[in-house]
């Protein structure tokens, strides 16, 4: 079986686990994320607008927006890094690609912290995304310019024993779930 097929199987299993966790816990489980972000008040960060059964970072993002710039990803095109547009609670939104909302008016900036959505994660900071490579390209670009903290955010149930990773997959620095905070030391 080739790596593409292995990744597809891993995603399918992780989506099923995430759906079950979402149905049990609901989307708003951001207390630990708020706790982490409180230590970075005023530092520019990017979160995401949750889609489907993703855990929601919105309460933590709203708290952070009171202290500094917060953005959300805007897809620029296939195989391109993401750009992050300034977001605040209640701002006007429009439909973006893949069903995620984005700010009506683009006001791009580069965040120092990126809250990363994911399909699955492992105990070493590996992340399996949706397969487009958007976050990998984006984190690679941001990290080439300055230190950038990548915080994965997901349900505990999305943890996998081992993930099919490639050299281009960008590792997470930290993982936050509804019940714990895991720091990865590199």
Task: List the SSEs and their pairings.
Blueprint: H1 3-25, H2 31-38, E1 45-46, H3 58-65, E2 70-74, E3 83-86, E4 93-95, E5 101-103, E6 108-109, E7 113-116, E8 120-121, E9 127-128, H4 134-145, E10 149-153, E11 174-176, E12 181-183
Parallel strand pairs: 1-2, 1-7, 7-10, 10-11
Antiparallel strand pairs: 2-3, 3-6, 4-5, 8-9, 11-12
Helix pairs in contact: 2-3
Description:
The chain is of the alpha/beta class and 186 residues long. The protein has a single domain, classed as NagB/RpiA/CoA transferase-like (Rossmann fold, 3-Layer(aba) Sandwich), CATH 3.40.50.10420. The chain has 4 helices and 12 strands. A hairpin with a 5-residue loop joins strand 8 and strand 9. Helix 2 runs parallel beside helix 3. It is globular. The two termini are 31 Å apart. The model has no long low-confidence stretch (mean pLDDT 93).
